[in-house]
Description:
This protein is of the alpha+beta class. It is 24% helix and 22% strand. The protein is built from 8 helices and 14 strands.
Amino acid sequence: MRRLDRFLAEETSFSRSEIKKLIRAGRVSVNGSTDIRPETKTEPETDCVLLDGRRILPAGRICIMMNKPAGVVSATEDRRTRTVLDLVDEPFAAKLFPVGRLDKDTEGLLLLTNDGMLSHNLLSPGRHVSKTYFAVITGMPDEEIIQRFLEGIDIGEKKRTLPAQLRFLSVDGDFLEEYVKQGAGENTAGTMPPGIVSPDEMQEFCMKSIALADYARCGENECCSAVSVSEGKFHQIKRMFQACGRDVRFLKRIAMGKLLLDPALAPGSYRTLTDEEIKALERSVSG
């Protein structure tokens, strides 16, 4: 059993003092009755607790997939710009935080959760959890860039980037076969670098998570590509392409580890993860 005011304060963005005012105003009911007090004992799993007509349930672990739109920041609060949490219309929104970040102008898969350990494991450098992106870049496909990404690129930091998988795509989503060579995706030692997705996995990600509207963004003297990295340096994808003489015109994350972006999610929309998707995340962390 839990005190009503404490339960509601834990599961919503209201403080306990604000909850007490809501109870006095008759905006809270338990099993249909508003004849209640802040100290009323309740069993949240079985009692019907309503706040402004909306049932409040104990959240437990929350994992939300969002298709982040451009123009919002990956933060819990910002005084100047809308954040991803501003897009979550749920009582528990204030309890969430983004797992990592996407640049303000980058779209795509963003995980929101209240599980600090899951977030830590997904972002830990030692776990080498991959992040896969769809990118529209200037210029035409070039096999040399594929090899440079695989070898790691100097982007002006102490160390080169870790090996990254790059593939060029046709505007209908197929890999451009002339740029898929025998052994592609392996380093000079002939082994797959930690955290890097295989060409087959990347092709599956692209087929399942890139919308036709994304390919339509590719204009004259531009090409479509898919990139998978296992680290998260500042503006990393853009800086890697810039080091190769290319500019990124559009960037969208389509996968985090083995979790794929649901193509049915419009930019700015979200949904809770399915049990299978949570298992996919856990497989990503365990390697």
